[in-house]
Specification:
The structure is a homodimer.
Chain A: H1 11-14, H2 16-27, E1 31-32, H3 33-40, H4 44-56, E2 60-67, E3 70-77, H5 79-96, H6 99-102
Antiparallel strand pairs in A: 1-3, 2-3
């Protein structure tokens, strides 16, 4: 875990809505847009903007398809996203339990 | 844990700088301003503003004193702050591990 304290918390994932999206795509193999919207209680615009940010970081990929004549967007996590999420959890837990503040104290 | 999904994540604590302050006052009985500033790598103004928000919420208390002729500000957690931090961790872990999304699925 990088030793720059709070700076090592991944802001891309830490923002609540994006944390919710990442947690869901780690929980469910495929999440469709409507399911994300309902579970996370976000608006279309808000959810779309957060999905775009995570896509640009290559943490998730989206697939657009049709169910009958109804358009469907599916979101799933990439290997990079899985790795970033695991590192985020490890860093967060080090902060939550204060471990991150003891680092480097020994080697002064 | 309140069942309003992401909404139950305490924004007051979730913001990175304030998360760092709360984690430190939970780790160390007394934190002085300089120690917080160094460990969290925040500016005086930034740290002061975040301390004020946590004080207004009665999660922390500050004590101003002098060490010789040098002014010193000490920050410590209140019982309310301790409780809020514990609830924040429980909620965050439910989100991190996706448990929060399975709630209420059974009782539809």
């Amino acid at each position: 875990m990088r030793k720059d304290g709070l700076g090592s918390i991944n802001d891309l994932i830490h923002a609540k809505a994006r944390l919710g999206i990442m947690s869901m795509v780690m929980t469910y193999e495929y999440c469709d847009f409507t399911m994300l919207k309902e579970k996370l209680r976000l608006t279309d615009g808000n959810l779309g903007a957060h999905i775009q940010k995570l896509e640009e970081a290559q943490y998730i990929i989206t697939k657009k398809t049709f169910l009958g004549r109804k358009p469907k967007t599916y979101v799933s996590v990439t290997e990079e996203g899985r790795e970033a999420y695991r590192e985020y959890i490890a860093t967060l837990e080090a902060v939550l339990y204060g471990e991150i503040f003891h680092e480097g104290e020994g080697d002064k």
